[in-house]
C-alpha cells in the first residue's frame, strides 16, 4: 500500500501556518529581546504551533468527513474524498500531535509548553463539540490566537503587554465573526 504523501501534506494545511506568526509577535514588538537564543526559541514555538495546528486540522477533518462529503467545496478534502483513509488520517493527526508535544517538551520553557498544550486541548474540544455552540465557537478561535501570543512571549521569557493581548483578541474575534458571517 502506498502512502498518499501529497494528500497528507494537503490535509495538514501548511498554507494556514501563517496564523502561527502570532507566536512571533512578542519578539517583533520587543526589539531588546532579539538575540540568537530568543530567535531559536521563537522559531521552535512557531514550529510547535504549526505541528499542533496541523494535528487539529486533520482531526477536525476526520470528525467532519461525513458532512464534508456533502459540501460543494469541502468534499475535495483528502479525508472526505477518500484520498486518505480515516484510519490513516487519525494516525497522521496523532503523529503530528505527538511531534508537536514532543518538540514543546524538549525545547520550550515550561510556561510556553503549557500554553501550547492548552491550545491543543481547546482546539480539540472545538473540533469535537464547541464549534457547534454559537458565540463560543468564535471565542475559542480568538482564544487560540491569544494563546499563540502568550506562548511566544513565554518562550522568550517576557510578559506580553495588555495591549498586544487585547488587540490580538479583538482582531481574531473580528476575523472569526466575519468568517462566520461570510459562511452564512
Instruction: Supply Rg.
Output: 17 Å
Would you list the SSEs in sequence order as H and E?
HHHHHHHH
Low-confidence stretches: none
SS class: mainly alpha
Strand content: under 5%
Number of helices: 8
Shape by Cα distribution? globular
Q: How many angstroms does the end-to-end distance come to?
A: 41 Å
Provide the helix percentage: over 70%
Main beta sheet: strand number and arrangement? Answer: none
Number of strands: 0
User: What's the rounded overall pLDDT mean?
Assistant: 93
Q: Could you walk me through the main structural features you see in this protein, from its secondary elements to its overall organization?
A:
It is a single chain. The protein is built from 8 helices and no strands. With 184 residues, the chain is mainly α. Helix 6 (110-128) packs antiparallel against helix 7 (136-155). The longest helix has 34 residues, at 36-69. It is globular. The model has no long low-confidence stretch (mean pLDDT 93).
Short overview:
The chain is mainly α and 184 residues long. Helices cover 72% and strands 0% of the residues.
Topology, element by element:
Layout: H1 5-11, H2 25-28, H3 36-69, H4 78-81, H5 86-107, H6 110-128, H7 136-155, H8 162-183
Helix pairs in contact: 3-5, 3-6, 3-7, 5-6, 6-7, 7-8
Which key phrases capture this entry?
mainly alpha, single chain, 184 residues
